[in-house]
Amino acid sequence: MNSRMFVSAITLTLMVGCKANKDSLNTFYTDAKRSGHKEVEVLANVVPFEVEVYAQSEARSPFVLPKQPERVTQPKKKKTCWQPKYRKKTGALERYSLRKLRLKGVMGADQDITALIQTPKGSVIKVRKGQYMGTNNGQVVAIKSKQITLKETLPDGMGCWQQRYVKLALKH
Fold it and tell me: Name one Pfam family in it (predicted).
């Protein structure tokens, strides 16, 4: 019996809470139509689209990219030039540019020296001599108290490769 009274009380509460809108639908419609009326600006005349027919001439096809002209001043590709050995980039620091990496410190003594490199995400990774970092195959060749030296391998744009030394210094 208690559950029947409880259900009856909830039903009565819901029915009292739902008051029907006594205004007529026609009154609501006319009020809404009156308040929603706005003046609309007249649009400018539409310019008709003119189709231009394509007639192929002796020019190249529009669906083929044009050939790049070779400049007279452009150096010829060397037939024998240094090529680096292929290696997979497996180091955690090889996905970041050197500009985004920060040298945070150096620790160790004598031959067992490691550098602490901070990534853009904030994590710090230990690096030893011989490991790679940076996007240009930068190999750590020297670790000193305030800097590390890397040997990077860069393409010269003509099929050959160049090496350069880059220093990553400790900032105060």
Answer: PilP
User: Residue ranges per domain, the chain?
Assistant: 98-169
Helices (H), the chain: 2-17, 25-35
By the 8 A CB rule, do 114 and 127 touch? yes
How many whole angstroms separate alpha carbon 123 and alpha carbon 116? 10
Q: Three-class SS of residue 35?
A: helix
Calculate the alpha carbon distances from 156 to 55, 76, 83, 93, 137 in Å: 43, 12, 11, 23, 14
Report pLDDT digits (tens) over 71-89: 656 556 566 787 888 888 8
Q: Match 């210094």 to its residue by tokens.
A: 169
Angstrom distance (rounded) from CA 117 to CA 98 = 10
* Architecture of the domain spanning 98-169: Roll (2.30)
Entry pTM: 0.52
Buried b (16+ CB within 10 A) or exposed e, 142-169: ebeeeebbbbbbeeeeeeeeeeeeeebe
Q: Of 154, 152, 160, 158, whose CA–CA distance to 81 is shortest?
A: 160
pLDDT digits (tens, 9 = 90+) for 146-159: 899 999 988 887 77
pLDDT at 127: 93
